[in-house]
Amino acid sequence: MLFLKDDELDRFSDPEMLVSSVEAAMVWDETHPGNVPQRMHINRGDNTFLMMPAFGPVRYGTKVVSVLPGNSVNGMPVISGTYQLNDNRDGSVLALMSAAKLTALRTGAIGAVAVKHLSDVDATNVGIVGCGVQARALVKMIAAVRAVKRIYYFSRTRQSAEFFGSEMKKVLPNIEWIASESISSLISSVHVVVTATTSPDPVLPDREPLLMGKTFIGMGSYKTNMREFPDAVFRLAHQVLLDAPGTRYETGDALHPVNSGIRKAEDVFTLGKILTGTRQVSGATKVFKSAGYALFDLFVAEAIWQRALLDKKNMEINF
Fold first, then answer.
1. SS3 state at 68
2. pLDDT tens digits, 118-150
3. 200, 178 in Cβ contact below 8 A?
4. What is the pTM of this model?
């Protein structure tokens, strides 16, 4: 069994590999549904414990995550967990790795896959609303699928925006980083808008002329009563693309356009259907919503593990 720490997950992965892994998972899921059981929630007071399994062609994996909001008071991570990769044939444990790091890598890759297949190939200006950990992974991956020249960013707190800008300039020094004074000014300057917030209410203005012709990638709000996109986005977009089937029922940005009558149920479908050629996307304005999916974790974990096998010195342990 390999024990892979955060820096090793970085070392044995790259954006091209991660994007390809998520694409492969999306395609496989379209032809092999039913391999992702419903995730298990256990609530104890304010704390939540999650177990998220997924079965692939030759391996399966399980992410076990603890969410303890009270940890923030003591300066400790609110979310922690592990990911275990197993062999389908005999159940043997192949790898153990950080769930948080793996999630960040696959989340960035999901956003990049959406940008790759929905935005114009000459989209060079990208805007990101929300400047947390998720945003950093997203822009790194998106820069690998598009020739990004400028990234405009906005956070509701100046401190968060300043930290994000200073850190990302070190990571991607060839890109021009521009702090936006408002979300409206950010949108007017970019081709692609990525939202990575936990806002319960739309963070973009409900103005069709401002939003028209853009590609919107929603990576944040993850509950049925949370939305990042206003009605104008759904009025402009002919379809709402999802990362996975369950996203349709788990997020406000997938539920609201149908429940409100703005879009029909058949207008909401997975990006995997675009990748397999069974559906097409039309119109100048595109919208994509992600809620995460255990199958993406599995395919990314497998790809990293296979690379790590080539250089497993000091990473192999036995129970």
1. coil
2. 999 999 999 999 998 889 999 999 999 999 999
3. no
4. 0.94
Question: What is the chain's alpha carbon radius of gyration, rounded to the nearest angstrom?
Answer: 19
Domain that includes residue 131, residue range: 108-292
> Domains in the chain: how many in total?
2
pLDDT tens column, 170-179: 999 999 999 9
Closest-CA residue to 115 (of 245, 271, 291): 271
More confident residue, 48 or 177: 177
Is residue 219's pLDDT more than 80? yes
State yes or no: pLDDT of 312 exceeds 90. Answer: no
Query: What is d(CA 299, CA 302) in angstroms, rounded to the nearest whole number?
Result: 5
Please report, for the domain that includes residue 72, its CATH number: 3.30.1780.10
- Inform me whether the pLDDT recorded for 265 exceeds 90: yes
Q: What is the largest CA-CA distance in the chain?
A: 60
Instruction: Give the angle 96-99-105 at the CA atoms, nearest 5°.
Output: 110
Neighbours of 7 (CB within 10 A): 9
Contact by Cβ (8 Å): 286, 241: yes
Q: Which residues pair with 268 in a beta bridge?
A: 240
118 lies in the same domain as 135 = yes
Give DSSP secondary structure letters for 194-225.
Answer: EE----SS--S---HHHHTT-EEEE-S--STT
> Alpha helices of the chain — where are they, by DSSP H?
6-11, 15-31, 99-118, 133-145, 158-171, 183-189, 208-211, 231-236, 247-250, 252-259, 272-275, 294-308
Distance CA 1, CA 245 (A): 32
Q: Which two three-digit tokens encode residue 295?
A: 């199958």
Q: What is the pLDDT of residues 244-259, one digit of tens each?
A: 999 999 999 999 999 9
CA distance 156 to 73: 21
Q: Are residues 266 and 127 in the same domain?
A: yes
3-state DSSP percent of the chain in helix, strand and coil, to 5: 40, 25, 35
Residues 188 and 243 in one domain: yes
Burial 70-108 (b: 16+ CB within 10 A, else e): eeeeeeeeebebebbbbeeeeeeebbebbbbbbbbbbbb
